[in-house]
Amino acid sequence: MRRPITHDQRLKKLRGGRARDDAAYDRGRRAKCPALSSAARIRGSARWKAVRAEKRRRDPLCQMHEARGATVEASSVDHIKPLATHPELAFVMSNLMSLCEPCHAKKSAQERMAR
Ligand SMILES: [Zn+2]
Predict the structure, then answer these.
(1) Sign of dihedral through CA atoms 12, 27, 49, 98?
(2) Alpha helices in the chain, H assignment, sequence order
(3) How confident is the model at residue 24, as a pLDDT?
(4) For every one of its 115 residues, what pLDDT tens digit does the chain have, with 9 covering 90 and above?
(5) Ligand 1 centroid vs 46 CA: distance in angstroms?
(6) What pLDDT is attached to residue 52?
């Protein structure tokens, strides 16, 4: 029986010779602003796009509006615990919230002030 390969091994296989260059590039970026660059990498990933699409399919309405009994279509998916401080929760459904643009802007502004 073939042993299943790990996620890392599959990544290496997919990226081939580029893996080392990418790692060096990431190290350079992380040195400048560690939390932000890893958040940007997550946001650009195919995995995040798939998780975000799944969340919007499950919760098409803005959950902050919904909590107040209002029905507004969501336009984005937000991390309840921010990516910058909780990258390990990036793909955890229970850490995601569907939001409309005004609610998303409000929450992001509050997070910036809290920092
Ligand atoms: Zn809203």
Answers:
(1) positive
(2) 7-15, 18-32, 34-43, 46-58, 63-67, 101-114
(3) 63
(4) 566 667 666 656 655 555 556 666 555 555 566 766 888 899 999 999 999 999 999 999 999 999 999 999 999 999 999 998 999 999 999 999 999 999 999 998 998 888 7
(5) 26
(6) 98
- Beta-bridged to residue 79, according to DSSP, are 96
User: What are the backbone dihedrals phi and psi of residue 77, each rounded to the nearest 5 degrees, phi first?
Assistant: -115, 125
Residue 2 Cα to ligand 1 middle (Å): 49
Centre of ligand 1 to C-alpha 41, Å, is 26
Distance from the alpha carbon of residue 28 to the mean position of ligand 1, in angstroms: 37
Q: What whole-number distance in Å separates Cα of residue 102 and Cα of residue 114?
A: 18
Residue type, 57: R
Residues 65 and 31: their CA atoms lie apart, in Å, by 39
Task: Give distance in angstroms: CA of 103 to centre of ligand 1.
Answer: 4
CA distances from 9 to 1, 5, 15 (A): 18, 6, 10
